[in-house]
Specification:
It contains 15 helices and ten strands. It is α/β, with parallel strands linked by helices. The strands form two sheets. The protein has an eight-stranded parallel β-barrel with strand order 1-4-5-6-7-8-9-10, surrounded by eight helices.
Length: about 375
């Protein structure tokens, strides 16, 4: 069995703790609000039948993947029991109406086109979060409405918000805040950036919630839901005009995502540009289809700027885009190494053959000078 590569170990630990308080039968189909009087109970039951597949998927999941999934299911169940707003329920009904039709849903491609530039260039997705890996809440991070324009003005192609409160400290309210700030740039140069809801999707109501918040895309993790649910979620999202970024960790998952209809895949939880490229190197893409590939850059546990160098290497390997999260916040709001400076440097046309942004000592000395030279 191929183990699911999960980078966020704190998530799994939190999930295990949460599971000790739950009495959920993992063999039963998960239907939000099925045993309560939540408004969602009155909706058609496609999610009830479809989720039988969700629990019997043949996708190889290790214990951590199962725990994380179940913790998120509990979150979604509580959201439904508390009573989602009518705007979300209306969008959920639209998803259901679309799924009842046999007509082929036309997939939106605006984000895919935006992230895919000419060969030799790289685009950046900047992820906003309030918590770093294993370090709790960030004490010096700016509010989303203050960082959002920084991402835009320094050249990011899109903004992601880690909307899973357990792992990123953010909620869908943060998505709304970023969307509203980006909309204020309408008519300006640069203009508004599309916002991505980066959540662990396990049910279509989360897609409706993302659309209601103003997001233009959602993330779906292949190793958590499997090929059949990926395919269904792509269709569900398309019915609301949303695109789907499918997170993958192995070559098998990447091919499965493409087979399911994914047009954007992100290699996550894999360290090193060579290992990332190995995930997409042998992709078989049907004729006439284009697939945008994203490399998720993991933050290094040091003060150097190795993440910038890795972004350049991923660009040279053929990736279209890099997804940057924790690495943006390593230096807080330092005037030289702030999130905008990291984004600009990753987009620079420099090459590891001629320059290196990381410190030679491995402790960060000299990194600021490299970064400053590149930005000039």
């Amino acid at each position: 069995m191929t183990p699911l590569r999960i980078h966020r170990l704190p998530t799994a630990i939190a999930a295990i703790a949460l599971l000790t308080t739950l009495s959920v039968d993992p063999s039963s189909a998960f239907a939000p609000g099925a045993n309560n009087k939540s408004p969602i109970q009155s909706l058609p039951t496609r999610s009830q039948t479809a989720n039988t597949i969700f629990f019997t998927t043949s996708t190889s999941l290790n214990a951590l993947g199962v725990f994380v999934r179940k913790a998120k299911e509990a979150d979604v169940r509580k959201y439904c029991q508390d009573g989602p707003p009518e705007s979300v329920l209306s969008l959920l009904q639209k998803i259901k109406d679309s799924s009842d039709k046999d007509d082929e849903v036309e997939l939106p491609t605006e984000l895919q086109t935006l992230l895919t530039k000419r060969k030799g260039t790289i685009t950046i997705i900047a992820e906003y979060k309030r918590k770093l890996e294993g370090s709790g809440f960030i004490t010096d991070v700016l509010d989303p409405v203050l960082l959002s324009p920084v991402f835009r003005e320094f050249g990011a192609a899109a903004v992601a918000v880690l909307a899973d409160e357990r792992t990123g400290g953010c909620t869908y309210d943060d998505i709304v805040a970023v969307v509203e700030e980006q909309d204020e740039a309408l008519g300006d140069v640069p203009g508004p950036l599309p916002v991505i809801s980066s959540d662990l999707i396990v049910d279509e109501i989360q897609i409706a919630q993302a659309a209601d918040s103003g997001a233009k895309a959602v993330t779906v993790t292949y190793g958590v839901v499997g090929e059949e649910k990926v395919q269904q979620f792509i269709k569900d999202a398309a019915s609301l005009g949303l695109e789907v970024i499918v997170n993958v960790g192995t070559a098998e998952e990447a091919q499965g995502a493409v087979n399911a209809g994914a047009s954007i895949i992100s290699v996550t939880g894999v360290d090193g540009s060579d290992n990332k490229f190995a995930v997409i190197e042998s992709l078989s893409i049907p004729e006439g289809r284009n697939v945008c590939t994203i490399a998720n850059i993991l933050a290094k546990d040091n003060k150097a700027l190795e993440e910038v160098e890795e972004a350049w290497m991923c660009r040279d390997a053929g990736f279209n885009c890099v997804w940057v999260s924790d690495a943006l916040y390593k230096a807080g709001n330092d005037p030289v190494e702030h999130p905008g400076a990291i984004i600009s440097t990753m987009k620079a046309k420099s090459s590891v053959k001629y320059a290196s942004p990381k410190a030679r000592s491995g402790k960060g000395e000299g990194a600021r000078e490299y970064l400053g030279d590149i930005l000039m």
